[in-house]
Amino acid sequence: MTLSQNEQKKILAVKAANFVEPGMLLGLGTGSTVDILISTLGEKFGDLKTLEIVPTSLDSADKASKLGVKILEPKSDLSPDLLIDGADEVAPDLSMIKGGGGALLWEKIVAHNSKRRIYMADSTKLVRELGHFLLPVEVVSFGHEWTSMALKKIFSAVTIRKTAEGEIFKTNSENLIYDCQIVDDIQIDVLDADLCRIPGVVTSGLFYGFVDILLTVKSENVIEIYEPRDVFW
Fold first, then answer.
1. In the chain, is it the N or the C terminus that has fewer CB atoms within a 10 Å radius of its CB?
2. Does domain 135-203 have CATH number 3.30.70.260?
3. Catalytic residue (one of 43, 52, 73, 107)
């Protein structure tokens, strides 16, 4: 029997929760699999008052605080012992696209400052090359239409993100997001560098070199991947 996507997310969350210990400072990601992780941690520990987190979104902070978790702001004397987050797409070199939920900037900041990083990706997120999922690019609101003109020179399609109500989507940092279609055979490291040179671009959903452990599913079992040579897809 093949596991459904939700069933995969559940076993991934259970596996990830095994890495969490009482008293840890946890970098807590954002997204549907992380939502299941939060519930799983509640089931595992019962009382989560000994756990502290640095959240990657206001949404994750709100959901964790309802279980009694202490929420901390990023400070120079803090470094999360462990970050656990999800991914929208993962390639064989362990590069990822993230930011489907709009939290890419905070996710990248917390990940960069964490001692160890675990990402969860069900089997539907595994791809041969990035680009099936649109790449989120976070931009400041001032002059964003000019920024979009520069993005259109790099990508085959560029669309500003809107809410379900048709309003322009804003991140927790009050920035905007353009969802961009990556062209075929592009070099991810070159693309990342090109984006950094565009005035108005804050960051993109390209995560390259962030994975310490990738948790995914193969034949109904959770697989731990530590480096590209362990990749099976």
1. N
2. yes
3. 107
